[in-house]
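Ticket #4471: structure export looks truncated?
Reporter: QA, pipeline team
Priority: medium

Steps to reproduce: submit the single chain below to the structure queue and open the exported record.
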Amino acid sequence: MTETTRVLVVDDETGIRDFISLGLRHEGFEVETAADGHAGLRAVDDFKPHLVIVDLMMPRLDGWEMCKAIAGDRSRGVIILSARDETGDRIQGLELGADDYLVKPFDFGELLARIRAVLRRRNPSLARVVRAGDLSIDTATREVTAGDRLLSLSAREFDLLLYLAVNADQVLPRQRILDEVWGFNFFGDENNVEVYVRYLRQKLDDVDHQRIQTVRGVGYRLHAVAPSVRED
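Actual output as written to the record:
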């Protein structure tokens, strides 16, 4: 199994922490949160995040001081998230070692794009790109492209597609897929696999099931050759 990318969110606003963590968990990241800089530094030591999102104006220990404290580790990305939008604040944040500076209020899609860009720059050792035919799956940023199309997948869809791609051209029984993707403690049945295969086929425009093939009575196989172009 591939390593899950860990993100630490440090902000004294509960709503902001919940909003970001919910969105990132939906995208498949492992997330921890902290309400101030002191708690954030403890979480850095315990959680060992690949990326830290930190607010500037916090009680006890603010974001400036936290950035100074963690600036020595160049493998860890830092994004400052703040309501302060002065040019001087941006410059100071970047000089303290932050990789990016995003002003509140913000769009989650923009934050996600910046997170992925920072991860690519700061932690190339984490990145592992799985390719199968014209599919490209970045396990660090969780970006998936099919040809020149960027796909928007849920966390479960991503995990399923990744498992199929890692085992491309192998016939995978439904129960094995269920155990590996959903986990051995999952109490659902094989219908879950069928449902999510259908979701993936829709997003991959796999109308003829050339890409994700059904092996009747057994399970599924991801065909690693790019599908042919259909002529209408």
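Status: closed, not a bug. The export was complete when the record was re-opened. Leaving a note from the reviewer for reference: Helices lie at 14-26, 37-47, 63-70, 87-95, 108-122, 155-166, 174-182, 191-203.
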